[in-house]
Amino acid sequence: MRKHLLDRRRFNALCATIGLSSPSAGAIVAATSGQSAAAQDAGAPTSAAGRTVKLPNGTIVPALGQGTWHLGQGRHPAAVEEEALRLGVSLGLQLIDTSGNYGDGLSEKLISRVIAGRRDRVFLVSKVEAYEVTGDGMARACEASLARLGTNYLDLYLLHSPVPSRLFAGVVTGFERLRATGKIRAWGVSNFNTSQMEELFRVPDGPSCATNQVPYSLNNRDIERDLLPWCKQHDMPVMAYSPLGGDNNLVIGDPTPARIGAAHGCAAAAVALAWVIRNGNVIAIPESGVPAHVKENAVALSLTLTPQDFQILDAAYPGPSGAN
Fold first, then answer.
1. pLDDT of 165-204, one tens digit each?
2. In b/e form, how buried is each residue of 118-138, taking b as 16+ CB within 10 angstroms?
3. H-only helix segments in the chain
4. Which tens digits make up the pLDDT trace of 54-109?
5. Do the Cβ atoms of 241 and 273 come closer than 8 Å?
6. Maximum Cα–Cα distance across the chain
7. How far is CA 130 from CA 158, 176, 191, 193, 273, in A?
């Protein structure tokens, strides 16, 4: 039995052979793995499920994207970070997530140079802050992000953090106005808990929410208790930030994913990310900024973890008690 579709060397060689070409973000098609329909109905992890994710509006996006929280702010030379993002897009990590408050717009400005001439190949996500939702704040924040990014639309616009529930109706109205004018194509939220999602879905057009961006990783499985099942029940994917554990709690140095990675001929990061995107209802957005790390991350798109791998990972990183 093949443990994965392509090992890292073969995957990179294939990409080089085809010139790192890939279709537009809106036209990505999931690969099939021959897994039985019965296994998928039972919720068993499948390789096909982990390649792409469908948003509520029918848009198909890569299950693996790129985060940019620290990019454009001197952590690495700008040219290196731009190269990393471009490489990621070429390897299938075509969803790029940013925010106007990342480095006071420096992240968005760096991304503008990356997507110049290839906007149609990128699914672009940015965010509006909680303090910007009143009056015409959302429209102004969106226009500022568009200007910094050098584009006339966002594929997805998120509310970066929750606001009081009494403001939900106004926020949704603001998003829908931006969508009606073509400034954004979909909208969502970030850092909402289950009760906040329920409140959001009670307001007019609230169920149009495309995703909830929250932390999720092998060592942070809290959303499995209620939020992840709730989102799945409502056919809304989760977008996982810090899918490798976050700056101060990375799992890539842990022995378990490293051991599994060695067995598959890939880095621990690919194992951790393949686990996050295993069921087709989670989008992972790891941040890198270094081309070598982007290559390691991208292998998750072709990596099929075995049932034994999942058992070992679950034992090393148990989910929360009471999880569904």
1. 999 999 999 999 999 999 999 999 999 999 999 999 999 9
2. ebebbbbbbbbbbebbeeeeb
3. 8-17, 37-41, 78-90, 106-115, 137-149, 168-180, 194-202, 227-233, 255-264, 268-276, 291-298, 307-316
4. 999 999 999 999 999 999 998 999 999 999 999 999 999 999 999 999 999 999 99
5. no
6. 59
7. 10, 17, 11, 15, 29
Q: Residue type for 308, please?
A: Q
Let me know if 37 is exposed, middle or buried by CB neighbors in 10 A (0-12, 13-18, 19+). exposed
Residue count of the chain, please give it: 324
> Are 142 and 154 within 8 A, CB to CB?
yes
H helix or E strand, kind and range, residue 56 = none
Specify the 3-state DSSP secondary structure of 64: strand
Place of tokens 């969502």: 188
Q: Where are the domains of the chain?
A: 48-316
Chain centre to alpha carbon of residue 312: 25
Position 91: which residue type?
Answer: L
Options 3.20.20.100, 3.40.50.1000, 3.40.980.10, 1.10.275.10; CATH for 48-316 is 3.20.20.100
